């Protein structure tokens, strides 16, 4: 590995900026290869900083044209300029005006950070540190300024010119073929929220009237011909705006809210003030091109970026260590929005599946880090499941601890106290402490300690005393850089369920009623005794997944089957089935590796049958419950010496036997849920399709009757992408003539729609068979594939690395070698995408010795490559570091 490594950035080293920027006036003269950027900064010394201090501005890959200070051109000896930094050692002692002109080449910007040009459209991405690729600037989130942006371009090339805020001027430039537009954002913002777009785009427009009666213009800009695919995104935006007013009292503050959909984008979307820029996959949707999950993702991500207007924009983060302050909080808000728009239990299950599949694995491996890290080498590598999803869980725990009223009071105080500021996690949590009168100092450990806590619960009923004794212990495992942990504050929602499926009153032996059914575990070990318990109850703990912990309990298979059928808490009904299935799969993996016969579990079959026959349950909930734990779930439960092939074999066998045992009910359900009516993406309709297709999948796994032929008929006759894609996904698992025919037909149907072809790429990359690696290699040469497009790379290479457990983890190491080779080839072009591919190695230490050795060798080869980007070097170094 390279010996020359970038110095780490440490939270402990934070100090306020030496200079503040009050206003920024930009003049951007667009040109494909020679864009000129003139910036006028009104600076003043920071009274909180050490004085006097030089002016030091960040840059990256910039060509400086000129520098003026207070109107006078600076001679070269008065400043030091490199492509990465501009320093003025002896600035004035007071406020000053600094004018800088730079030149950049948007067409050569393959990193897609800063200002770049893609498919003829100029676009920006400035989070986290992209603004420094446009002009020299103190590119840090605690420097907040008011921006005015003038954009100039050839009118034929870029008739649409957009920037943050409200447009205050526009027109043609006399005597030329060029035109201009001027945008002003009155709200101070950090540089990472700057945005600019120039291109030939179509516009879909609507309006929204705020709770105070202001009319806001809503505009979505897309490539010409795609206007008809924006309706659901626009509807989602209007619903999100109304929900934020009702739920948090947050009203939009500009005259216009704009979304621009682009096809080349490193992220999902970006919340730039007033001008959100989106990966087009999260905007464009019609029934024949998008699945139900696509519609749900569009709804959630549109809402997420809009909600950032207050949690991220109006109040931003002081430094990048506080990233969870905007992202975790906003994920929590978008989860709540979706729960209210759709089904709260189903949404909670989906969110927990995602958390366990990505964040729990991250927390258990070499890339583990706290929700608020204390050190980083490359901030782009901390846009992680820990910051986003676990960060959201921490906010949810605050609500669980305090109750909805005190939580809302804390949020209101946060908005009132810190509007217009760059805040910290401590300031956020303090608002809830002040609003509730609670001491939350120990709760801060959720932000500072990495690792998934394990809670062990042992319950015992004593008939003579009519009491139930619950003993709880907690441990937090060591993680990189944190060998010793303090106990966490863990809110555990619980119920004691009697034989009729009713919750018993929760009164302790000291006469205390458990407020809102939530116990708070704060010590390494605590005991709770409940009185007046007439008969043995069944413990239902961590209801609604009230805390992101790994729970170990002493419930029997019969207890779990009872909870699956009778628990009043829907999340724990689902969890009971998952627990039964996981235990069976873990046992059968061990049996297969030891050459012993596998076993079946009648309790699991009974539980699934009870769920499938309960007419009161939402179809989407039943579909979630019938979906067995994934291969990654089982690997996480095993924890070490993991053999992906044995896990796949055990799970395939369980899918087969489940399909056989429930065949009558599955067939009846598929028939009952067939809907000849027109497609609708609403939650109820989506739930019925999800259950129908889950049942069809299990029937195919069991080879029941004409299952494959039935799946092929659905593929051929489907009138929506959800059913067609579900059928194709099922067919992809079986090497039959129908699979080949369907894959060929799918490409012919949709070859002109790149977003749909991404599904085709991803599906083939996920096929769990030995030929898949060769198939993926061949597909990289396909005319529809391009390494220059992040969506294509994620669809094909990312799907192979992240979702195909057996083939990425091939015993011969070829999967590891392929992903490393691809990442190294991409690194010079797009370091962010390359680094994210290598994050697939996050659990390599948990593998069995042969695979572990090959994964390590692949990582070490990556680390020894010359000229690695900071992004890739950081991921490799952390993956290889000893715990």
Concise structural overview:
The protein is of the alpha+beta class. The protein is 40% helix and 20% strand.
Structural class: alpha+beta
Major beta sheet summary: 8 strands, mixed
Could you tell me how far the N terminus lies from the C terminus, measured between alpha carbons in angstroms?
18 Å
Which runs of at least 5 residues are low in confidence (pLDDT < 50)?
Answer: none
Global outline: globular
Quick check: average pLDDT? 97
Give the total of beta strands.
31
Q: What portion of residues belong to β-strands? A: 15-25%
Strand order of the largest sheet: 6-5-9-3-2-12-15-14
Helix content: 40-55%
What is the overall number of helices?
27
List keywords for this structure.
single chain, 883 residues, alpha+beta, 8-stranded mixed sheet, 5-stranded mixed sheet, 27 helices, 31 strands, 40% helix, 20% strand, globular
What does this structure look like?
The protein has 27 helices and 31 strands. The strands form eight sheets. Strands 6-5-9-3-2-12-15-14 form an eight-stranded mixed sheet, with no helix packed on it. Strand 7 and strand 8 form a beta hairpin. The longest helix has 25 residues. The protein is globular, with a radius of gyration of 28 Å. The relative contact order is 0.07. The model has no long low-confidence stretch (mean pLDDT 97).
């Amino acid at each position: 590995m390279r010996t020359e490594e970038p110095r780490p950035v440490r939270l402990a080293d934070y100090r306020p900026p030496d200079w503040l920027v009050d206003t920024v006036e930009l003049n951007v003269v667009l040109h494909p290869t020679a864009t000129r950027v003139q910036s006028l900064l009104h600076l003043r010394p920071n009274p909180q900083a050490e004085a006097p201090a030089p002016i030091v501005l960040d840059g990256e890959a910039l060509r400086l044209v000129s520098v003026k200070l207070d109107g006078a051109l600076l001679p070269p000896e008065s400043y030091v300029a490199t492509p990465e930094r501009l320093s003025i050692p002896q600035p004035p002692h007071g406020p000053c005006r600094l004018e800088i002109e730079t030149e950049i080449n948007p067409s050569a910007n393959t990193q897609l950070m800063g200002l770049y040009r893609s498919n003829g459209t100029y676009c920006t991405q400035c989070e986290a540190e992209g603004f420094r690729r446009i002009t020299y600037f103190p590119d840090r989130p605690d420097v907040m300024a008011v921006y005015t942006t003038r954009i100039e371009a050839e009118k034929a090339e870029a008739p649409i010119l957009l920037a943050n805020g409200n447009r205050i001027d526009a027109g043609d430039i006399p005597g030329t073929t060029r035109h201009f537009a001027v945008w002003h954002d009155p709200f101070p913002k950090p540089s990472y929220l700057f945005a600019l777009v120039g291109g030939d785009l179509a516009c879909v427009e609507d309006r929204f009237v705020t709770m105070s009666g202001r009319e806001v213009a809503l505009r979505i800009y897309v490539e010409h011909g795609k206007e008809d695919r924006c309706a659901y995104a626009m509807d989602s935006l209007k619903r999100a705006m109304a929900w934020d007013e009702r739920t948090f009292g947050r009203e939009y503050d500009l005259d216009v809210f704009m979304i621009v959909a682009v096809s080349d984008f490193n992220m999902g979307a970006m919340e730039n003030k007033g001008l959100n820029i989106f990966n087009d996959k999260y905007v464009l949707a019609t029934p024949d091109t998008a699945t139900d999950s696509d519609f749900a993702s569009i709804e959630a991500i549109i809402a997420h970026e809009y909600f950032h207007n207050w949690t991220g924009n109006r109040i931003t983060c002081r430094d990048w260590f506080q990233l969870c302050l905007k992202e975790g909080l906003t994920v929590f808000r978008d989860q709540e929005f979706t729960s209210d728009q759709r089904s709260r239990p189903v949404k909670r299950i989906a969110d927990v599946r995602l958390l366990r599949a990505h964040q729990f694995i991250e927390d258990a491996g070499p890339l583990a880090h706290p929700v608020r890290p204390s050190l980083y080498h490359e901030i782009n590598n901390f846009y992680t499941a820990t910051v986003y999803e676990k960060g959201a869980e921490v906010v949810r725990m605050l609500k669980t601890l305090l109750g909805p009223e005190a939580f809302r009071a804390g949020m209101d105080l946060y908005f009132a106290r810190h509007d217009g500021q760059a805040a910290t996690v401590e300031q956020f949590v303090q608002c809830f402490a002040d609003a509730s009168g609670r001491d939350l100092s120990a709760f801060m450990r959720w932000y500072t300690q990495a690792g998934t806590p394990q809670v062990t619960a042992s319950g015992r009923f004593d008939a003579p005393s009519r009491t139930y004794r619950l003993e709880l212990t907690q441990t937090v495992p060591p993680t990189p850089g944190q060998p010793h942990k303090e106990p966490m504050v863990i809110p555990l929602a619980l119920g004691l369920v009697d034989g009729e499926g009713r919750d018993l009153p929760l009164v302790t032996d000291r006469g205390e009623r458990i407020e809102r059914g939530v116990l708070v575990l704060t010590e390494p070990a605590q005991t709770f005794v409940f009185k007046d318990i007439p008969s043995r109850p069944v413990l239902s703990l961590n209801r609604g997944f009230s805390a992101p912990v790994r729970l170990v309990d002493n419930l029997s298979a019969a207890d779990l089957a009872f909870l699956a059928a009778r628990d009043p808490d829907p999340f724990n009904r689902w969890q009971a089935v998952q627990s039964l299935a996981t235990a069976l799969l873990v046992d059968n993996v061990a049996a297969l590796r030891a050459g012993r016969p596998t076993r079946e579990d009648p309790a699991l079959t009974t539980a699934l049958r009870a769920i499938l026959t309960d007419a009161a349950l939402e179809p989407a909930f039943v579909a979630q419950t019938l979906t067995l734990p994934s291969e990654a779930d089982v690997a996480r439960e095993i924890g070490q010496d993991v053999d992906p092939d044995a896990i796949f074999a055990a799970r395939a066998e369980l899918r087969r036997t489940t399909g056989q045992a429930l065949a009558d009910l599955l067939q009846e359900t598929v028939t009952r849920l067939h809907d000849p009516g027109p497609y609708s993406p609403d939650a109820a309709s989506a739930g019925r399709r999800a259950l129908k297709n889950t049942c069809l999948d299990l029937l195919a796994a069991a080879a029941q009757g004409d299952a494959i032929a039935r799946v092929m008929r659905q593929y051929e006759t489907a009138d929506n992408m959800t059913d067609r894609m579900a059928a194709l996904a099922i067919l992809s698992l079986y090497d039959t003539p129908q699979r080949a025919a369907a894959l060929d037909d799918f490409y012919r149907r949709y070859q002109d729609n790149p977003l749909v072809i991404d599904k085709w790429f991803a599906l083939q990359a996920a096929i769990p068979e030995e030929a898949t690696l060769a198939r993926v290699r061949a597909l990289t040469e396909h005319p529809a594939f391009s390494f220059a497009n992040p969506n294509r790379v994620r669809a094909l290479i990312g799907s192979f690395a992240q979702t195909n457990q057996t083939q990425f983890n091939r015993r011969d190491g070829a999967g590891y070698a392929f992903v490393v080779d691809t990442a190294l080839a991409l690194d010079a072009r797009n370091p962010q995408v390359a680094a994210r591919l290598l994050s697939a190695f996050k659990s390599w230490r948990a593998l069995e010795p042969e695979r572990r050795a090959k994964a390590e060798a692949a990582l070490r080869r990556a680390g020894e490559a010359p000229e690695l980007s900071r992004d890739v070097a950081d991921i490799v170094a952390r993956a290889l570091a000893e715990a």
